[in-house]
Specification:
The complex is a heterodimer of chains A (110) and B (116).
Chain A lengths: L4 E3 L2 E5 L4 E6 L6 E7 L6 E6 L5 E4 L2 E5 L5 E6 L8 E8 L5 E3 L3 E6 L1
Parallel strand pairs in A: 2-11
Antiparallel strand pairs in A: 1-3, 3-8, 4-5, 4-9, 6-7, 7-8, 9-10, 9-11
Chain B lengths: L4 E3 L2 E4 L5 E6 L6 E7 L6 E7 L2 E4 L8 E4 L6 E5 L8 E8 L10 E2 L3 E5 L1
Parallel strand pairs in B: 2-11
Antiparallel strand pairs in B: 1-3, 3-8, 4-5, 4-9, 5-6, 7-8, 9-10, 9-11
Classes of the chains: A mainly beta (110), B mainly beta (116).
Chain lengths: 110, 116
Protein backbone atom coordinates (compact mmCIF):
# COMPACT_ATOMS: atom_id res chain seq x y z
CA UNK A 1 0.00 0.00 0.00
CA UNK A 2 1.40 3.35 -1.09
CA UNK A 3 1.32 6.02 1.62
CA UNK A 4 1.67 8.73 -1.00
CA UNK A 5 -0.80 9.27 -3.82
CA UNK A 6 0.23 11.34 -6.79
CA UNK A 7 -2.09 12.91 -9.31
CA UNK A 8 -2.45 12.99 -12.15
CA UNK A 9 -0.77 9.72 -13.04
CA UNK A 10 -0.19 10.86 -16.63
CA UNK A 11 -0.05 14.37 -18.06
CA UNK A 12 0.53 15.38 -21.68
CA UNK A 13 0.68 19.09 -22.45
CA UNK A 14 1.98 21.52 -25.07
CA UNK A 15 5.14 23.53 -24.68
CA UNK A 16 4.48 26.79 -22.87
CA UNK A 17 1.59 25.53 -20.76
CA UNK A 18 1.56 25.52 -16.97
CA UNK A 19 0.89 22.45 -14.86
CA UNK A 20 0.57 21.29 -11.27
CA UNK A 21 1.29 17.84 -9.86
CA UNK A 22 -0.06 16.82 -6.48
CA UNK A 23 1.23 14.49 -3.80
CA UNK A 24 -1.18 13.59 -1.00
CA UNK A 25 -1.13 11.42 2.08
CA UNK A 26 -2.94 10.86 5.36
CA UNK A 27 0.44 10.58 7.06
CA UNK A 28 2.60 13.37 8.41
CA UNK A 29 6.12 13.52 7.04
CA UNK A 30 9.17 15.04 8.66
CA UNK A 31 10.34 16.04 5.19
CA UNK A 32 9.31 15.54 1.60
CA UNK A 33 11.39 15.31 -1.53
CA UNK A 34 10.65 15.63 -5.23
CA UNK A 35 12.62 13.70 -7.83
CA UNK A 36 12.65 13.55 -11.61
CA UNK A 37 13.47 10.32 -13.38
CA UNK A 38 14.25 9.98 -17.08
CA UNK A 39 14.01 6.68 -18.99
CA UNK A 40 16.85 4.31 -18.21
CA UNK A 41 18.17 6.41 -15.35
CA UNK A 42 17.75 6.63 -11.61
CA UNK A 43 15.72 9.38 -9.92
CA UNK A 44 17.48 12.72 -9.44
CA UNK A 45 16.66 14.89 -6.44
CA UNK A 46 15.05 18.25 -7.27
CA UNK A 47 14.21 19.63 -3.84
CA UNK A 48 13.64 18.82 -0.16
CA UNK A 49 10.97 20.63 1.87
CA UNK A 50 10.93 20.39 5.63
CA UNK A 51 8.71 23.07 7.16
CA UNK A 52 4.92 23.12 6.88
CA UNK A 53 3.85 25.80 4.40
CA UNK A 54 7.34 26.02 2.92
CA UNK A 55 7.65 27.16 -0.68
CA UNK A 56 10.79 26.60 -2.74
CA UNK A 57 11.50 27.71 -6.27
CA UNK A 58 13.89 26.14 -8.74
CA UNK A 59 13.83 28.22 -11.93
CA UNK A 60 10.38 27.50 -13.44
CA UNK A 61 9.50 24.90 -10.79
CA UNK A 62 7.70 25.85 -7.57
CA UNK A 63 7.37 23.35 -4.75
CA UNK A 64 5.03 23.73 -1.79
CA UNK A 65 4.75 21.68 1.38
CA UNK A 66 1.31 21.63 3.01
CA UNK A 67 0.81 23.33 6.35
CA UNK A 68 0.13 19.98 8.02
CA UNK A 69 3.10 18.34 6.26
CA UNK A 70 0.82 15.73 4.68
CA UNK A 71 0.78 16.94 1.11
CA UNK A 72 2.82 18.78 -1.46
CA UNK A 73 2.54 20.22 -4.94
CA UNK A 74 4.86 20.89 -7.82
CA UNK A 75 3.98 23.67 -10.25
CA UNK A 76 5.82 24.12 -13.54
CA UNK A 77 5.49 27.39 -15.42
CA UNK A 78 5.87 27.52 -19.19
CA UNK A 79 6.74 23.84 -19.55
CA UNK A 80 9.44 22.84 -22.03
CA UNK A 81 10.11 19.50 -23.77
CA UNK A 82 13.15 19.08 -21.51
CA UNK A 83 10.78 18.88 -18.53
CA UNK A 84 9.48 15.55 -19.81
CA UNK A 85 10.00 12.76 -17.28
CA UNK A 86 8.60 10.88 -14.32
CA UNK A 87 8.11 13.13 -11.30
CA UNK A 88 8.21 11.33 -7.98
CA UNK A 89 7.45 12.62 -4.52
CA UNK A 90 8.92 10.86 -1.51
CA UNK A 91 8.14 11.39 2.15
CA UNK A 92 10.38 10.65 5.08
CA UNK A 93 8.63 8.58 7.74
CA UNK A 94 9.75 7.18 11.06
CA UNK A 95 13.17 5.59 11.08
CA UNK A 96 14.32 7.87 8.28
CA UNK A 97 12.64 5.66 5.68
CA UNK A 98 11.87 7.36 2.37
CA UNK A 99 8.55 6.24 0.84
CA UNK A 100 7.88 7.09 -2.78
CA UNK A 101 4.65 7.83 -4.57
CA UNK A 102 3.82 6.09 -7.85
CA UNK A 103 4.86 9.08 -9.89
CA UNK A 104 3.41 11.41 -12.50
CA UNK A 105 4.55 10.81 -16.07
CA UNK A 106 4.81 14.20 -17.75
CA UNK A 107 5.14 14.63 -21.49
CA UNK A 108 5.69 18.11 -22.92
CA UNK A 109 5.09 18.22 -26.65
CA UNK A 110 6.94 20.79 -28.79
CA UNK B 1 33.46 12.48 -9.06
CA UNK B 2 32.00 9.11 -10.06
CA UNK B 3 28.37 8.47 -9.24
CA UNK B 4 26.77 5.30 -7.92
CA UNK B 5 27.90 2.43 -10.15
CA UNK B 6 25.76 -0.64 -10.68
CA UNK B 7 26.24 -3.84 -12.63
CA UNK B 8 25.03 -5.60 -14.60
CA UNK B 9 22.95 -3.04 -16.42
CA UNK B 10 20.61 -5.66 -17.87
CA UNK B 11 19.98 -9.28 -16.96
CA UNK B 12 17.61 -11.86 -18.41
CA UNK B 13 17.30 -15.15 -16.56
CA UNK B 14 14.94 -18.09 -16.40
CA UNK B 15 12.74 -18.49 -13.36
CA UNK B 16 14.26 -20.46 -10.49
CA UNK B 17 17.76 -19.31 -11.46
CA UNK B 18 19.88 -17.15 -9.14
CA UNK B 19 20.95 -13.59 -9.94
CA UNK B 20 23.22 -11.08 -8.23
CA UNK B 21 23.56 -7.32 -8.55
CA UNK B 22 26.54 -5.27 -7.50
CA UNK B 23 26.71 -1.67 -6.36
CA UNK B 24 29.60 0.69 -5.67
CA UNK B 25 28.39 3.81 -3.85
CA UNK B 26 29.86 7.29 -4.03
CA UNK B 27 33.13 7.43 -2.13
CA UNK B 28 32.68 8.45 1.49
CA UNK B 29 28.94 7.76 1.61
CA UNK B 30 28.08 5.80 4.74
CA UNK B 31 24.48 4.99 3.79
CA UNK B 32 23.62 2.58 1.00
CA UNK B 33 20.12 1.67 -0.22
CA UNK B 34 18.65 -0.99 -2.45
CA UNK B 35 15.30 -0.14 -4.03
CA UNK B 36 13.07 -2.10 -6.40
CA UNK B 37 11.06 -0.24 -9.01
CA UNK B 38 8.29 -1.98 -10.92
CA UNK B 39 7.14 -0.58 -14.24
CA UNK B 40 4.97 2.49 -13.78
CA UNK B 41 5.56 2.71 -10.04
CA UNK B 42 7.84 4.51 -7.65
CA UNK B 43 10.86 2.85 -6.04
CA UNK B 44 10.26 0.66 -2.98
CA UNK B 45 12.96 0.29 -0.33
CA UNK B 46 14.35 -3.22 0.09
CA UNK B 47 17.20 -2.56 2.51
CA UNK B 48 19.24 0.29 3.94
CA UNK B 49 22.78 0.03 5.30
CA UNK B 50 24.59 2.36 7.66
CA UNK B 51 28.20 1.37 6.99
CA UNK B 52 28.11 -2.43 7.14
CA UNK B 53 24.98 -2.67 9.33
CA UNK B 54 21.56 -3.33 7.81
CA UNK B 55 19.41 -0.83 9.74
CA UNK B 56 16.17 -1.27 7.77
CA UNK B 57 15.50 -4.59 6.02
CA UNK B 58 11.86 -5.03 6.98
CA UNK B 59 10.72 -4.93 3.33
CA UNK B 60 13.30 -7.39 2.04
CA UNK B 61 11.68 -10.75 1.12
CA UNK B 62 14.14 -12.78 3.11
CA UNK B 63 13.01 -16.16 1.82
CA UNK B 64 14.67 -15.48 -1.52
CA UNK B 65 16.50 -12.15 -1.26
CA UNK B 66 19.77 -11.51 0.52
CA UNK B 67 22.16 -8.59 0.64
CA UNK B 68 25.55 -7.86 2.08
CA UNK B 69 27.89 -4.92 2.53
CA UNK B 70 30.81 -6.64 4.19
CA UNK B 71 33.36 -3.83 4.32
CA UNK B 72 30.92 -0.98 4.46
CA UNK B 73 31.63 0.08 0.89
CA UNK B 74 30.22 -1.86 -2.05
CA UNK B 75 27.22 -4.13 -1.79
CA UNK B 76 25.65 -7.17 -3.43
CA UNK B 77 21.96 -8.00 -3.71
CA UNK B 78 21.08 -11.61 -4.52
CA UNK B 79 17.87 -13.33 -5.52
CA UNK B 80 17.67 -17.10 -5.32
CA UNK B 81 15.56 -18.53 -6.81
CA UNK B 82 14.12 -15.82 -9.02
CA UNK B 83 10.39 -15.69 -9.76
CA UNK B 84 8.52 -14.09 -12.64
CA UNK B 85 7.29 -11.34 -10.31
CA UNK B 86 10.86 -10.29 -9.55
CA UNK B 87 11.14 -8.64 -12.96
CA UNK B 88 11.87 -5.00 -12.14
CA UNK B 89 14.61 -2.40 -11.99
CA UNK B 90 16.85 -2.75 -8.95
CA UNK B 91 18.20 0.64 -7.95
CA UNK B 92 21.14 1.21 -5.67
CA UNK B 93 21.56 4.58 -3.99
CA UNK B 94 23.91 6.18 -1.50
CA UNK B 95 24.01 9.23 0.73
CA UNK B 96 26.46 10.75 3.19
CA UNK B 97 24.21 9.77 6.10
CA UNK B 98 20.78 8.22 6.73
CA UNK B 99 18.63 11.21 7.65
CA UNK B 100 16.70 12.62 4.70
CA UNK B 101 16.56 16.24 5.79
CA UNK B 102 19.52 18.20 4.53
CA UNK B 103 20.75 15.09 2.79
CA UNK B 104 20.90 14.09 -0.85
CA UNK B 105 20.37 10.53 -1.98
CA UNK B 106 22.12 9.68 -5.23
CA UNK B 107 20.77 6.87 -7.35
CA UNK B 108 22.56 4.64 -9.79
CA UNK B 109 21.17 3.89 -13.24
CA UNK B 110 19.69 0.62 -12.05
CA UNK B 111 19.95 -3.04 -12.97
CA UNK B 112 17.09 -4.16 -15.21
CA UNK B 113 16.01 -7.72 -14.45
CA UNK B 114 13.73 -9.78 -16.65
CA UNK B 115 12.71 -13.22 -15.43
CA UNK B 116 11.28 -15.48 -18.13
Amino acid sequence: TQLLEQSPQFLSIQEGENLTVYCNSSSVFSSLQWYRQEPGEGPVLLVTVVTGGEVKKLKRLTFQFGDARKDSSLHITAAQPGDTGLYLCAGETSGSRLTFGEGTQLTVNP
Amino acid sequence: EAGVVQSPRYKIIEKKQPVAFWCNPISGHNTLYWYRQNLGQGPELLIRYENEEAVDDSQLPKDRFSAERLKGVDSTLKIQPAELGDSAVYLCASSPWGKTSGNTIYFGEGSWLTVV
